Amino acid sequence: GLELRVVHWPIVLEGQLSWAVHATLRVLSGPERYVRLGLAIRPQGTEGASPCFDLTRDRSGLWRANGRPILALGEHGDEIVTAVHGEPDPWHSFRGAVERTHCQLPGPLELHCPSGLASAVEISGDFLGAGQSITRMGVLGPGPRVGPSLVRTSGQTLWSGATADRRGLLSAGSEIVLEDHPGLFDAARTRLL
User: What pTM does this model have?
Assistant: First the structure.
């Protein structure tokens, strides 16, 4: 079997508030096999569609959507699968559900879609046996020049920095209080059901 563990936490990197994402894919049992871990950029958000007309990637692994930095990778993947409106979604290509149409080695990339449906998956893969894992790290919402500094760091370093920031805020008198609001919780639960 396989186990995927994804953790994320807020960080300050190059003076910009961002989110670190750390994904680990572990082989729990069975024979050695080829596994792939992909970080996808898709034209959607928590509130539905979020058009992506222009999707670019520079040499350092910094992805931009419509000119805005959205994802910086700490390590290059092995391949990138892309698509625009009218082509199979890269996620389906990654899963093997459809044949890949646009695949390339990691490097500079420019993708334009007049319909706002530009998307990509940067994929890393390796042969792993039981107990082995593959790990990838990225930063969501990075600053424009975060790529080179991210290559010199690790998930552990970012986590240590984030916990030190939290301890500093708490010792300075900052406090986050989450109060009990049973009426609001019940209303939300009823609405969802």
Answer: 0.74
